[in-house]
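Co-fold these.
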Amino acid sequence: MYWRVILLNVLSGFINCSADINREKAERLMAETPLIDGHNDLPWQMRQLFNNELEKMDLNTLEKTHTNIPKIKAGHLSAQFWAAYVPCESQYKDAVRQTVEQIDVVHRLCRLYPDDLIFATSTDDILTAFQQNKTASLIGVEGGHSIDSSLGTLRMFYNLGVRYLTLTHSCNTPWADNWLVDTGKDTAINNGLSDFGKELIKEMNRIGMLIDLAHVSEKVMNLVLDLSNAPVIFSHSSAYEVCNSKRNVPDDVLKRVAQKKGIVMVNFYNDYVTCQKTANLSNVADHFDHIKKVAGHEIIGFGGDYDGVTRVPKGLEDVSKYPDLVAELLRRGWTDIEVKAALGNNLLRVFKEVEKVRDSMSSVKPYEVPIPYADVVNPCRTMYGYPPQDNAGSMVSLGLHLPVLTLLLHGTIVWLF
Amino acid sequence: MLFLNPLQSLWTAWQSQGCTVTSLLVIVLLPWSSSTSVEQKTLDLMRREPLIDGHNDLALQLRINYNNRLSTIDLHNLSKTHTDIERLKAGHVGAQMWSAYVLCSSQDKDAVRLTLEQIDVIKRMCSNYEELELVTSSTAVRETKKIGCLIAIEGGHSIDSSLPALRMFYDLGVRSLALTHTCNTPWAETSSSIHRVYQRDISLTEFGKEVVKEMNRLGMMIDLSHSSVSTARAVLLISRAPVIFSHSSASAVCNNPRNVPDDLLQLLKKNGGIVMVNLYNRFVACGKKANIATVADHFDHIKKIAGSESIGIGGDYDGARG
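Predicted complex below.
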């Protein structure tokens, strides 16, 4: 009788020890290699909760969000791409101005918390921040609608430190289709990418802007993988075969990402993890396992989508929980190299290569041809600067209507007389 | 939509900015020496102390004529503009404040995007040509061996009433903002009556005062060209830093709303700011014709009221004005 109790105690002790060992190892690995997360919407929460009046909150004690400084420290979050996101409703209105304001929020957060956050725009910056035990803070603009079809705006965002552009959010741009097209809830207007969209990809390669394919349609994923000279990222997408949401990445695309040496940074949103309203940490680890199995450990990263979603898994309630996920990967037999690859080495490789491609294209001239005016006609857009012949779209349609109108008029006159 | 500058036809005889300014200085120095040595003295002076011009709208012309496609032109020699590199060099221009201007009709529409595109074209222009160099500080202006390029936004409508946009423009290298162009913003008043928008009694609102304070904090020059006298006065009361009029002349010589009245000149003297004299006929001679001597009268008048420390040159070349 007693021996059973003793055996149970020993076994549970062993399991606990094991769990502790993995957790400790996770912390050790995270002290050696920076965890770089691909997508966090804290700036959006700043807008929603405080109208960007950052003096009204203290990031050291903020409770309403997944992210605050103590949680960042506990989670060993060494680098974060903060999302400069504005809603699709602002497209064709004030998207550019709002995006500029969200970019400004990241800059100001870094100035307000200089002991903990440091603005970063390069692989070197990430490593320097890691050495200083601060969180490297990068910016990703989430949605092509933020650039208002303007290459000048893209370049100026890069000058402001933006280092990735998600080509679409959940709305089409005049030059790229979004993932809702694949669900039937939206209609493709470009069959993927327009000619201007293709030039945009080349311009992003030229300036060294990471191309983010989270939120785009499958057609766009494949077109960009065809066109881009640099590796691409999915800043916050998971595996389609594990949860068949069109926000996730199908196996054939995972393989193509591996060929191009890109990265897929796993999203923690329950709806994209289990395709249901609930999920747990183990479900997220399943995505890591699947991507590793199909495409190798060199294309995996973390893209939690914290503070951008309302439903996160049990066990991953906030940004302090990353070490628990890492411990689970170790428990599942991931090697140190594989874990470190997922933590940050993969992203660093991708980013470094994007920088190399940029440097190799330094003698290439900026792309200057604006999007055709006909593709962007809307009440909030002046046609400032377009020569009259670029208005050919509207002239052609008027030309087609003229014969019809003439016939109608002729018919009317005949009828009257 | 866009007006062609009537100045163009009148200044065809004066193809070079250099001729104009050189001649101006010759007239100024004439009473004291023979004409040959005055010209030599002028050139020596300008070689030692290169000219900083407060306002040039070449970027606007690049938009109108080439839709910002710099690859289609050679900036060394342009036929459609007052400005190109050869003439800048001939004029001994040491630094130029390039205007990133977008139309008032884009206010509340796509002004921010258009402004970003104008900043982009100025930056590309200044990095594409080895004779030009983008500068963003007084030290850099002094030390550059090339023609220094400063970026100036012409009109508060470009910031869409957003202080973050103002800050981000500063981060992009913009170092001057004219509070208005020919249209009121929701927070500041223009001297023009062309656009009847945001009309109210207060020339500078509480938000407008915050804009001024934020510009002081950032180190962005406040440009009062195009602002109403009332707005200018309100700014001069609160600005902790000197202000500029990047391209305005003296009301006492030509009584045009774009020019600066004597009482403002006196406030400006206390403020430590400058008036950079505009060369546009309508602001110089209140008419269609003007000559170098008329321009020199503005210099003389401003010197008399506010002192020589308060004067500069803001030619407004390649500008389009109504």
